[in-house]
Specification:
RraA/RraA-like_sf, alpha/beta, eight-stranded mixed sheet, single chain
Length: 210
């Protein structure tokens, strides 16, 4: 089978307005999930591989054979600065799809991070270099690099559909997916949720101090 070439990748898909992404980046993933009626929240097993990791950005989608990272290497050649590489890896936990070296390349390229329905490795090193990675597991076992893979296509990620250009937000609670066309409305609603919770928390603290 012939390995797909970069020309088969649609990297020109629409991306959300930067100011909308910046607004969503300031909000907790939990508030965003509440604002979307608890939909769009990925499987809770997909978590940050190092403490304090968080990210936000447009989804650059990768669909790969479980345990194989050929598609991630291809995505690094096509993704734009600020993108989040979102990998549908079949939930496989036996092979790490990326580690420190890919993390270093991603920093050089200005990518926002990775979310993997699969495994990662070099968790401590990824934290040291500050590359946000969210994954289903951590394992020292390396990946295969044979393919096949598909880039820039609709994928299923942790039980949630993801289209290229959807907004990904991830923090210590997990990963949420915001449809691109709804991103501004979700930002409005999530900001309202955040403000309401902030006011309620202040009231609880005030009552406690009486």
């Amino acid at each position: 089978m012939t390995t797909p070439v970069l020309e088969d990748i649609d990297a020109e898909f629409p991306r959300p307005a930067r100011d909308v992404v910046e607004r969503l980046a300031k909000l907790p993933a939990a508030n965003i999930g509440d604002a979307m009626d608890r939909l769009g929240v990925a499987d809770s097993a997909i978590q940050a591989v190092w403490p304090g990791a968080r990210l936000a950005g447009p989804a650059f989608t990768v669909w790969t054979r479980p345990g194989d990272n050929q598609g991630i290497h291809r995505a690094l050649q096509a993704a734009r600065p600020g993108d989040v590489i979102v990998v549908a890896g079949g939930g496989d936990e036996s092979r790490a799809l990326l580690g420190e070296l890919i993390g270093e390349r991603a920093i050089t390229l200005g990518l926002a991070g990775f979310v993997l329905d699969g495994a990662a490795r070099d968790a401590e090193a990824l934290g040291e270099i500050g590359m946000p990675v969210f994954a289903r597991a951590v394992t020292p076992a390396g990946p295969y690099k044979n393919g096949p893979s598909r880039l820039g296509t609709p994928i299923a990620f942790g039980g949630v559909p993801v289209m290229p250009g959807d907004v990904i937000v991830a923090d210590s609670d997990g990963v949420v997916v915001i449809p691109r066309e709804q991103a501004a409305a979700v930002a409005d609603a999530a900001e309202a949720v955040f403000a309401d919770e902030t006011n309620r928390r202040a009231a609880i603290i005030a009552d406690r101090s009486k």
